[in-house]
Design a protein that fits this description.
1191 residues, alpha+beta, FAD/NAD(P)-binding domain, 8-stranded mixed β-sheet, 8-stranded antiparallel β-barrel, 21% strand, disordered N terminus, GMC_OxRdtase_N, flavin adenine dinucleotide binding, Cholesterol oxidase
């Protein structure tokens, strides 16, 4: 026998696909992956159909099966009313279902029980197939199955244990014992679906030589088992079938308005079951457009049908009735005279079953009398349990053992003790003299399967108590006693003589009369809709559940043949052509399917940019949504609560690292469901889902987000796009409550049909849900300590990102991130003019021509463009003007030029060379504005409309008050933030109490205060950068780490509400704030302390005489509610003063809600929130001028 360690045991493709690749619908859906399901998958794939296979267990390949008791117990699950500690794990390989009177053993894995059975390929005899429970199509023509037995044999390739292999003691012992029976018993070697030499099987998979380990019942690791996985499923895979593991089908629903079936299932993704309620209620679904095959085994298929019936799928009342255990009995001949090597270990015993004593010919008239006896083998992982089982059996057995002599009894006790002390594989101990027998016969078919508390319950008579089974025990007892052994049974036999079957049959029995009154399915496995003969045309059972009676022999051959028959006849009925002639060629681990049907949910380029870190977690978010369009998130949530419109998302997120970024970034790939009755009557499947962790959004400044992007599909076929966002910003600084809210609240917006808004609302993670979420972190592959660093790095990254905002005031400042937001090219100025002022200073005036001339709200065609003069505040020698920033989606110059205006943008002297700028005051700038007004008046036949901001507006008011600027040459004014009166906000007023702060800075660092200048490397400037981190702001949202932003705040006060800036603006503050000088700041400080305009000698300019220069000049005062530079009271005083002196009709005041000092000019939504008001005032002024001209 070959040593299976010397060759790779699983040299064939990985058959299962990642669950996230499952499509929403297929031509054919196959539930299960045993013999019948494998046949269905293979034949339908070869018929050219798109096929999905849903298997509850996982893909288990040779080399991964347990080899010790501890490994076996970790793969063991007990279900039923008394499952105990080993219950609740339906994806484990070994499944023991405890019932009342009868128990069943089965396997959950890709390939089903074929992975852990002995692989005995024996046909049912004619007498059995002609019994009355069988449908007439088979009962009256039992020979019709022969061609399908042959077809199954061609795939599974059974062969007997070769003569040229080492002799097996247990096979010889069984043959000797067979001689004790009557002549009606025949002995032969069992045909096994096992390879005894290395070659390729019928579908092209390379099989290894069987090493004789005897581990068939716990899984062969040598790669010699010709299971369903290496035959039918490998063939189906090659022909395009898509196989998904961990999918527990719950129930099936017929499509209401057409053909097809909806299959609802749980997905056992790692950790998802921690959310017990959501796990069972938030079901996935897949649609079978043509056919749905149920091949989950007798118990699995019956359970699905019983639950489907509860959910409204009508069918025969006989579902779950007349189940058979196939007359299975497991008997031990313990501690016999001869060493038969019946326990796997160092001395390999050979395959589990090698020989058969066939007693089916005892009576040709009575099929019920037939049975077979086969040798067995105790696999090494289970060997330590056998002494315990026998000991318990002896303790329960009231009868004294029949022992030849007292000396023999003493010898038995000694060898029994030696067995426990020296181990199960010692050559001459009690276990090695233990024979194992598996009996299959005909039982009463009186087992029933029911659902109780949503759990499958097996109930029936203890078959071991029947007279029929008593005969078998007597026959075997005779043979066992001749061998000098003690007959033992399973652990449960002593408890009312209950039995365990490894071959449960029935539950969806074929009907003997072609109606639902005598069975659940017809001869093809199609399910009856009720008592009559009507069937569900596309719903087919194809496994052991349809077998109507015990077979008295291993059932795999008959199950496969029945499935082959059903598929053949159904294909002909539906007009399918199954390609049975084309061979696959060699299928190796590197092979790809010859037929590829998979559609990518994720773009290949994006998929290549991700590298899984090997970990995933699950989360549940719950909340309410409203379906009114264009409504705020919080309002939508309130509307959703009032109408009980709830939403729940249950997502499993695989963490991936971005490989296309130089920085450490993570992305999550989402799989899951969304339930919302307002969108669909069933759960919505996540077809393509991503979570971006800690991304700086382009439309928000100095914060981070976790964004969800999910493509959803409803059962009705409607596609939705869900976008959600968790926002973490400076408001969470030193606040556990706000940090919790930031990381657990998701604002969601749902669209459909290419952007039409369908719903919006708020979802949250509750505290109990978060506690469960922490427990869901699982590796995506079998656990390895080498995977821990990746998890630790991710969690550390996550914690650091949150700490950057929780400890925001303490976070070191940073330089502007200009590289992240490149400057977008804008239309350059049409012309530039160097204007000389009255005091000999040259200032720059840029002209922007109109970009279009249209009707409607814009200027009329054929008219002269209206000039607009824009005067900025103090920005220093900046690269860009506030009014023509290239970072904005639409700046104020673009806004007006698109509407037919000609814009002029002035760069006052505080933006000139340092020698001029450092000696300038606000009062001096009035001369710059006067020069600009005169220049525009000389070029245009229309008066310019003036938009002035901050100290530019103050300079304008000074020029008008002292007469330097002729107010009659101005059409109207928008004064932004301040005009004549200056009322500082709190912290600016504190700084303005004394000029000492300005003097101190000038003494230490000079006259220049840099903001956007990168060459501020002096020690004083660096110390100042540290100190101004603690400059107080009114709202936590405005705590940021940008040095330019904080320097602007220190010089002028906080100039914006950070919520109104996008990332491009905030990251490029230094591009439009170069700096300022101490003389200018000192002048501003004096004016703020006095509350109004002052000239260079600090004389007040607001006098009754000067105010008369403002008469007849229309003004719009634009103020802010959250400015920390000037209080809104500043413009209110001007507004009240002017309207009470000159009348109210020329004056307007606009208070911008939620805006700071500068964001009405540079805010991301300034065009929608502010510019329109300025534009409307300019239009109104033009209309007033036109009316005056007409009159």
């Amino acid at each position: 026998m070959a040593n299976f360690r010397t060759v790779r045991p699983d040299e064939y493709p990985n058959l299962s696909r990642p669950f996230c690749l499952m499509q929403s619908q297929y031509d054919v859906v196959v539930v299960g992956s045993g013999y019948g399901a494998g046949v269905a998958a293979s034949r339908m794939a070869r018929a050219g159909k798109s096929v999905a296979v849903l298997e509850l267990g996982w893909e288990r390949r040779p080399g991964t099966f347990p080899e010790s008791l501890s490994q076996t117990l970790r793969d063991f699950n007990v279900s039923g009313p008394s499952g105990g500690l080993l219950s609740g794990k339906p994806t484990r390989l070994f499944q023991l279902t405890l019932g009342d009177g009868q128990h069943a053993f089965r396997a959950h894995a890709l390939g089903g029980c074929s992975l852990v059975n002995a692989g005995v390929f024996l046909e049912a005899d004619k007498q059995t197939l002609q019994m009355s429970p069988w449908p007439s199509e088979i009962r009256q023509d039992s020979c019709s199955l022969e061609r399908y037995y042959s077809r199954a044999a061609d795939m599974l390739q059974p062969s007997v244990y070769p003569d040229n292999h080492p002799r097996l003691r247990k096979l010889d012992a069984l043959q000797q014992q067979a001689e004790q029976f009557s002549k009606n018993h025949s002995f032969y070697r069992a045909p096994l679906t096992t390879f005894f030499d290395r070659s390729r099987n019928s579908v092209g998979v390379e099989m290894n030589e069987n090493c004789g380990s005897g581990h068939e019942s716990t899984g062969l690791n040598d790669g010699s088992k010709n299971s369903v996985a290496t035959t039918y499923l490998a063939d189906a895979w090659n022909w395009g079938a898509e196989i998904f593991c961990g999918c527990e089908v719950r129930y099936i629903e017929k499509v209401a308005d057409g053909k097809g079936y909806i299959v609802y299932f749980l997905w056992h993704g790692n950790g998802r079951s921690v959310f017990a309620e959501e796990f069972k209620t938030q079901l996935f679904w897949v649609k079978a457009n043509d056919l749905c095959f149920l091949g989950a085994g007798a118990l699995g298929t019956t359970e699905i049908l019983l639950r489907s019936k509860q959910y409204g799928l009508s069918m025969s009342p006989l579902v779950g009735r007349n189940v058979s255990g196939n007359g299975d009995m497991l008997i031990l001949g313990y501690n016999g005279k001869e060493d038969i090597n019946g326990v796997a270990g160092t001395n390999r015993p050979g395959p589990t079953i090698t020989g058969v004593i066939d007693g089916r010919e005892l009576s040709s008239r009575d099929a019920l009398a037939g049975y077979v006896i086969q040798d067995g083998c105790i696999p090494k992982p289970l060997a330590p349990l056998i002494p315990f089982v026998v000991m318990m059996q002896r303790a329960r057995d009231s009868a004294s053992p029949a022992v030849p002599t007292r000396a023999w009894r003493y010898l038995k006790a000694i060898t029994n003790l030696a067995s426990g002390l020296t181990g199960a594989s010692a050559a001459r101990n009690a276990l090695q003299r233990t024979s194992t027998y598996l009996v299959m016969s005909h039982d009463s078919n009186e087992l029933t399967l029911t659902l109780e508390s949503d759990m499958l319950f097996l109930r029936g008579p203890g078959e071991g108590r029947s007279e029929h089974f008593g005969k078998f025990r007597k026959v075997l007892g005779y043979v066992v006693n001749l061998a000098g052994a003690k007959m033992g049974f399973s652990y449960y036999h002593g408890r009312d003589q209950e039995e365990i079957t490894v071959h449960p049959l029935g539950g969806a029995n074929m009907s003997r009369d072609g109606t639902g009154r005598e069975g659940v399915t017809n001869h093809l496995g199609q399910i009856y809709t009720g008592h009559g003969s009507e069937i569900y045309d596309g719903l087919v059972c194809c496994d052991a559940s349809i077998v109507p009676t015990a077979l008295g022999v291993n059932p795999l051959a008959t199950i496969s043949a029945l499935a082959e028959r059903s598929l053949d006849l159904l294909a002909k009925k539906h007009g399918y052509n199954i390609d049975m002639t084309t061979t696959n060629g060699d299928l190796d681990s590197s092979s790809v399917p010859r037929v590829l049907r998979q559609k990518q949910n994720i773009s290949p380029a994006f998929e290549k940019s991700l590298a899984s870190v090997g970990w995933q977690f699950s989360e549940v978010l719950e909340g309410h949504i409203g379906t009114q369009p264009n409504v705020d998130f919080e309002i939508s949530e309130l509307v959703g609560k009032s109408s009980s419109s709830a939403m729940r998302m249950f997502l499993t997120i695989e963490v991936c690292q971005r490989t296309d970024s130089s920085e450490l970034q993570y992305t999550g790939i989402c799989t899951g469901t969304v339930s919302c009755r307002a969108l669909s009557r069933s759960t919505l499947r996540v077809l393509d889902g991503q979570v971006q962790f800690f991304v700086q959004p382009q439309d928000r400044a100095d914060l981070t987000t976790m964004t969800y992007t999910l493509r959803l599909l409803s059962l009705e076929g409607t596609q939705y796009d869900l976008t959600g966002c968790k926002t973490v910003d400076s408001t969470a600084a030193f606040s556990i409550r706000k940090m919790w809210g930031s990381t657990t609240k998701v604002n969601v917006r749902i669209t459909r049909d290419g952007g039409v808004e369908a719903a919006a609302g708020v979802l949250r993670i509750s505290r109990p849900s978060f506690q469960r979420q922490i427990r869901t972190f699982r590796p995506t592959r079998p656990f390895n300590f080498r995977a821990l660093p990746a998890l630790i790095i991710f969690l550390a990254y996550f914690a650091i990102q949150l700490c950057l905002f929780f400890f925001r005031p303490l976070v070191p400042t940073r330089a502007p991130r200009r590289s992240l937001n490149a400057i977008k090219p804008k239309r350059p100025a049409s012309a530039s003019f160097n204007l000389r002022t009255k005091d000999g200073i040259e200032v720059l005036l840029e002209e922007y021509e109109p970009s279009c001339m249209v009707n409607g709200d814009y200027m009329r065609q054929g008219t002269t463009p209206q000039p607009v003069l824009c005067i900025p505040g103090v920005t220093g020698r900046a690269n860009h003007s506030l009014f023509a920033l290239p970072f904005l989606r639409c700046n104020i110059v673009e806004y007006f030029t698109k509407r037919g205006f000609r814009c002029y943008v002035l760069s006052p002297r505080w933006g000139c060379e340092p020698k001029i700028a450092e000696n300038s005051t606000v009062f001096d700038v009035r001369l710059d504005i006067a020069a600009a007004v005169e220049h525009i008046s000389s070029l245009e036949n229309r008066k310019p409309y003036v938009v002035a901001h901050c100290q530019g507006s103050v300079a304008l008011s000074m020029g008008l008050l002292d007469g330097t600027i002729d107010g009659t040459k101005i059409l109207g004014i928008t004064s932004s933030a301040v005009f004549m009166h200056q009322v500082f906000a709190y912290w600016n007023s504190v700084k303005a109490m004394s000029p000492v702060l300005v003097w101190a800075y000038e003494f230490l660092a000079g006259k220049s205060f840099p903001i956007g200048n990168p060459n501020r490397n002096g020690v004083i400037q660096k110390v100042l950068d540290v100190l101004i981190r603690f400059y107080p702001v009114a709202h936590r949202r405005d705590l940021c780490t940008s040095t330019t932003c904080r320097r602007t705040t220190f010089a002028f006060g906080l100039c914006w509400n950070h919520d109104n800036l996008d990332a491009a603006i905030h990251d490029n503050v230094g591009e439009f704030f170069e700096g300022t000088h101490t003389k200018l700041l000192e002048h501003i400080t004096y004016m703020g302390r006095q509350g109004g305009c002052l000239d260079n000698e600090l004389n007040p300019l607001i006098t009754e005489k000067n105010l008369m220069n403002l008469k007849g000049l229309p003004m719009l005062f634009v103020s802010r509610t959250v400015s920390e530079v000037f209080k809104p009271e500043s413009t209110l005083r001007d507004y009240e003063m002017l309207r009470r002196r000159f009348g109210e009709h020329l004056y307007r005041r606009f208070l911008v809600e939620g805006y700071g000092h500068l964001d009405p000019i540079i805010g991301k939504r300034a065009a929608e929130d502010v510019y329109w008001r300025v534009f409307e005032h300019a239009k109104w002024c033009m209309e007033q001028m036109d009316d005056v001209a007409k009159n």
